[in-house]
Amino acid sequence: MSADPLVFVPVNRWSELKDLFKSDWPRSISGFTILENLERILQLGLDYGFKVYCPFGDLSNGMVALNVKNTYYEVVVQIANDDTQRLEEALNNTKLIDWSQSVEVPFAPKHVMDCVRKDVRLQKELTFKLLSLEYVEQVDSVWPHRYPGSLWYFELLTRANLGYGLFNGDKLIAWVFIKEMGALGHLYTLEEHRRKGYGELVLKLISNILLKQGKYVVAFCLEGNTSAYKLYTKLGFQRTDEIEWCTMTAS
């Protein structure tokens, strides 16, 4: 059995990590301060299980620390340089992190969070794949802005391999489309599966697919849709401009 890519770092080596974080000041200040404070906590005999690891045993590849606080599952990810390739590889292949539960990644610099967002794990009962035509009527039937001809539109996008669904077993529970102009749209989770993070998961998965294809990730958000706006900004989307749709009729 192969060794885990995350290698344990004992307390007596934390000073080496702190020196690396100091060399990347102030971007890596939080990596430095959490180690400094945990050293003090441990000296007081308050060892609650904080564990530090580094990818493939090389401290320059960064730090991944399991900071489980009672029932709160936190994974601290920090690296003192811009090369996150080995860090990403370790996050993708480690068995030490329980990705099946809600994982909080705190105070991560942008280059770290960009790396973490690429590492999206599906629960074993979930799959994310292209939609087939058998699901088009289901998609159209629950779309809030359904109109005569919208079924034809969803068929077009599906035939063009621009529709993706999240499945629990063989049941479609959430989906997203890439509209013909290239923007994400029609993100939807069935009512009985909401408030479980599936919308966020679908956005992460489709964004990763587009990024790996070297494409731009663009989305529109209707004015007043604060929940969607908060979700997009949480995932790193940046507001660029206001645009309008208009319908013109003859007078």
UniProtKB/TrEMBL annotation:
EC annotation from Swiss-Prot or TrEMBL: 2.3.1.-
Keywords, alphabetical: Acyltransferase, Transferase
Coiled coil: none
Domain N-acetyltransferase span(s) in chain numbering: 126-251
InterPro entries listed in its UniProt record: Acyl_CoA_acyltransferase (IPR016181), GCN5-like_dom (IPR013653), Glycine_N-acyltransferase (IPR010313), GNAT_dom (IPR000182)
Listed CDD domains: NAT_SF (cd04301)
Enzyme class: transferase
One Pfam family here: FR47
Membrane-traversing stretches: none
PANTHER family (UniProt xref): GLYCINE N-ACYLTRANSFERASE-LIKE PROTEIN, L-COA N-ACYLTRANSFERASE-RELATED
Family the UniProt entry places it in: Belongs to the glycine N-acyltransferase family.
Protein name, UniProt field: Glycine N-acyltransferase-like protein
Organism name: Iphiclides podalirius (scarce swallowtail)
